[in-house]
Records
---
Amino acid sequence: MSFTSLGLSEPLLRAIKQQGYKIPSPIQLQAIPAVLSGRDVLAAAQTGTGKTAGFTLPLLQLLDQSKPADPTAVRALIMTPTRELAAQIANSVLTYGRFLALSSTVVFGGVGISPQKKKLKQGVNILTATPGRLLDLHNQGCVDLSHVEILVLDEADRMLDMGFIHDIRKIMKLLPQKRQNLLFSATFTPEIRQMVKGLLDSPVRIEVASSNSTAENIRQVVHPVDKTRKPKLLSRLIQDGNWEQVLVFTRTKHGANKLVRLLEKDGISAVAIHSNKSQGARTRALADFKQRRVLALVATDIAVRGLDIEQLPQVVNFDLPSVPEDYIHRIGRTGRAGLGGQAVSLVSIDEHKSLAGIERLLQRSLTSEIIAGFEPDPNLVVEPAPTSTRPSRPRPQSKRGMGSKPANNRSKGSQGRRPTKSAA
């Protein structure tokens, strides 16, 4: 099936063709017709499956085909949890809407507010925003949301995790009651289900893969190792595997900075990205990584959403996440758009409980391989790693995958062939 069969207009099909996309992804096949029908939509899909195009394309068409009373008003509001994701979505709006007479902009914190005020004053039809900066602009009388026809909440589960629920509720009160609501999420947590009850009206429910699942084309492996030897093991994996690009997740900002220094001592170019970095520094770090000026991008979970990097072959959990669901979001940075990828977790003895939680969520054990020369010390005293106070959704028990299957110490990255492209 092609994009021409989904009811999209000629200008949008032309923009899609220019991007080289030919075949819609499963989420796009279901979401685009549902949004075009005017219904509310509740959609769950793994990261990297084309969710952004799934709501951006039909949103653009609906706005283009209707005649508003005020052509300069904000008619569509897209809210997202992170600056990086907001920038990515805004770029998609520009890309797919290049042949339409619709204006758009993006607003988020960490950068000057004056240029954003100026742009809003000129009139904007499609506004992509993070909740905090949007409220700041509204409180300063710079944005009117009373004409919004379509509301999109992207990565809604992450917004709740990051504590944006109160800001979201304030923003909801500023919107007209009659509007179309689109909620996209990687996972359906109990909190999301509760939120939906007061937001969506008889929504079309779309779920292209089982909730809380990971892409089948991602090779997932656990390497047991003592905590103090994790940096050296990571260097070994990068060098022996001839890795050219790797995204590494740490639990803390201090840990990210420290790991960058240790990698650079081993001759591996690396840069950190986390909330203590200015927006300019974060943008430069991501650009350097995308353009392969640095080999390793070391990130905290602030970067788990919104990183759109084509053919990212490797993701490493240097520290396991405190919340099991974040494991899915992290490793979803690889294996995107049907390509192959590898997710490696370096697990110390104090993280066994976190690993068990992840495996319960996935309902399966992860392959465990000990790298020769990095065998864990059986005499180490266990010091429990920090865990989240947020309860994880109960899952059936599964066997823990912390066996001692030996592995060759040359860990090769896997990278699949490029399939026919689908919009992302």
---
Amino acid sequence: MRIIFAGTPVFAAMALEALIKSNYQIVAVLTQPDRPAGRGMKTVASAVKQLALQNRLTVLQPASLKVPEIQQQLRMFDADVMVVAAYGLILPESVLVTPRWGCLNIHASLLPRWRGAAPIQRAILAGDPETGITIMQMNAGLDTGDILLQQGIPIDADDTTQSLHDKLGCLGAQSIVEALELLQRGGLVPVPQVETQACYAVKISKSEAAIDWQHSAIQIARKVRAFNPSPGASTGFRDMQLKIWRAQAETGEPGKNGEIVAVDREAITVACGNGLLRIRELQKPGSKRLGVADFLAGNPVRPGECFVTTDQSASQHG
């Protein structure tokens, strides 16, 4: 089976590695152009490109797939299928129909729930009990194609976007290998998505990361988990903006929204619109992430002080 692989971040690289280990013939790898990243803004190759070069695979990095020359180049590979995972470019109709069996997408949700750019974060924010991987036959719509294979996993109470990303990356890698094996045997049965069950995972914006202490402790704890590792749930405190990386919701007597009601070496406990939030890991601007005991050693915090909702877009620390 001749495969063109299209993907960019670590999530996609996990799938590419599984295909390589399964001895599939990867005739070309498409990935986003190298871009500046990190504090030094040095130009960095994508995780997919790095893995492809390590395995001496042909790498293409077009800025668009709408260019006729690129489309002709893809046809020349005579691919049986294109596997797409978090690629980041729109595939025009002429590309979708180029491979013999079309293009299969690895999507990190149980479609039709959470179509779009941020399915992992949206599932956590919504309090979904489970998520999973969908292998989908791509069409011209946004994650609207027929479902070919699905596998679900529970969302644990302490799952962050990072931990769930890692689990889904592994599951996606396993799922695409299974799907391609079924495809070769004619065992994939396309199932149309139920449009009435569809919802969209809109891209995460930094402005969403500001904590509103009028919300319930459960909602805020979900936000902390959903925005870990990026962009980090944020709150104002004294004259600075803090990021909260780990916290748990508890029941308790209501107090003034954002008021610190207890402090110990385990947690800073804050009153919310409903319930209490026990903060266990946080970060000052320009500093590193610290557990509460280490944070308090250099930053004494007193009951009665308050966290405040601020404009997250004003925060620049990471």
---
Amino acid sequence: MAKNNILNGGVTGIATILNYLYEIPIGTAIFVMNVPLLIIAFKKLGALFVLRTFWVIGISSVIINMGTVLPVYENDLLISSIFGGVLSGLSLGMIFLRNATTGGVDIIARLIKLRYPHITLGKSIFLLDAIVIIAGGFVYGNAESVLYAAVTIFVSAQVLDFVVFGISRGAMIMIFSEKSDEIRHIIINDLGRGVTVLKGQGGYSGNENNILLCACYDNQIQKIIKKIKSADENAFFIITQAKQIIGEGFMR
């Protein structure tokens, strides 16, 4: 990425800028800048997390320094940006699933998630990377590099969230029916999914009724609808995407 003049985000981006200005090896700069972040992470995220991350940082720093002597693809910058983002997101996702990081903004993103659990790792990294890339744009004096870098970090963030959360993505279905008891048994016994019964009241009719709430995977939605429609053709559904489902039968 550096040889294509495509900026990187986070600590890698800062290291690339230092390499551009002062010819400091990128891997070495990454390693040195991660030391204070690892000290902070030790207090907040634990010794095992720091040891795993230190191992990843050490290996990646060596590989990055070695990579400067390898052939580089330079034909199409857009292709380089997209595939660079895909490979970055895949590698980060696999590392995060093992409760480690590559250091830098990955550590900061983990600390942010501890304080604000609703903010995904991908979004935090995307924001932090964007700040570094914009700053780097002024150093390079090349707007095109910033734009290609934006493509890379966007793709990387999407792939990262898919790897980390994709398995547990599903849906939340709310079912309104006069045959709620029959449908409840269908969901539990025939479909093998759990269901929660909520008490409700029709705003227009004033009649009390049961609302069924069911969490499922995306590929189960149509099967659930078809099965329920066979019991009550007038059943009313509200279906929303659930980015992450944690608990028995889903992600633990």
